[in-house]
Write a structure and sequence with these properties.
396 residues; mainly alpha; 2 strands
Length: 396
Amino acid sequence: MGGAGAYPAGMTRHDSKPAGAFPPAEVPGPALRGQRRAPNAVDFWRGYALIAIFINHVPGIVFEQFTHKSFGISDSAELFVFLAGFSLRYLSESRTKNLTGLRLVMRLEARAFTLYAAQILIVSVALAMMAGAAIWLDTPLILQWNNAASFFENPVATQIGIVMLLHQMGYFDILPLYIVLMVFAPVVVFLFRISPRLLFICSGALWAFALVTGVNIPTWPVEGVWFFNPFAWQLDFVLGFLLARPVGASAFLARHRGGARVIGGGIVLAGLAMVLLQWSPSPFDVPEPQLFFMNDKTYLTPIRLVHLFGLMALMMGVFEYCLRWRWFGAFAQALCSLGRNSLHVFCAGSLLSLGGQLLRFAAPISVLTDCVVLLIGVPVLLAVAWGNEWRTNLRR
């Protein structure tokens, strides 16, 4: 999962971007209790996104220029939310039949609560890290980083806002979007079972309504709006859900991989040209409704969705190729391990990114410092994934 920030009006933040593969290879159903899920394309790209998120959430680190965000329009957030919707298809089904009624609702809402608990935990730890660094380095300015100033200046109201998900720190704000999506996931599943076309129409209509009206969830106590607008981002989630099985549009694209790659390559080259030329549609040069023609991450504008699907089309089959190549097989297995344990790795990566920010502030900014951040962070992420699977095996 990778993320941006819910910021007061007028404030901006740093983005992060990885690539994807479309349509993802068929993923086995949920593993039996105690069993490890076999390597698959979804976990592979989710693992890739987690590494990219970790790197790109350390602004200015030298390695971010080698990640996807430096070469295109969409980023890790689009990919991660798409894969979350893809995974929902399997989370909502058992190995023998579809879950129904109360069992389905309880399963999905339990997942939403797990995400909520993780969000509260990592935000609390992040605030403690910043406070400790401010004391140790005798630099109160650190307390203003990443939209955290309100917590230290107005702790009573801000604590309520954090618990209600109305106050979000920069780089710690994609989980609130995911929580909202999972809370309403039963609606997605039930609409799909009535009619996949109905689900697509309802989701597209809500996304278009958000772009036309600008509706969003406000933040509090700091005035602003959610950086990831759930009314718009649900479309990415739903598209992942709809394309999870190799039927319909997903099967059509799989049968025409060559043509899809050509089209995807053209889209990626166009995105690269926009980055190199530093060109982006100006709100003064586009017609109404403006958001349909802008490059806006908060509202997940069409240009970002088109670029995401272009990337996924271009990168089809990369996971399978990696497994075949001797030297890339271990690399692919490592990324799959991260993807299988995505929530634990994401939480650890978010805190490690903040640690990298603090280290680069305290130490001289250099390639050596950046290498230390990377050489500590990536092995820790792999260790977190291994440790979680080890703990699962103990339970078995």
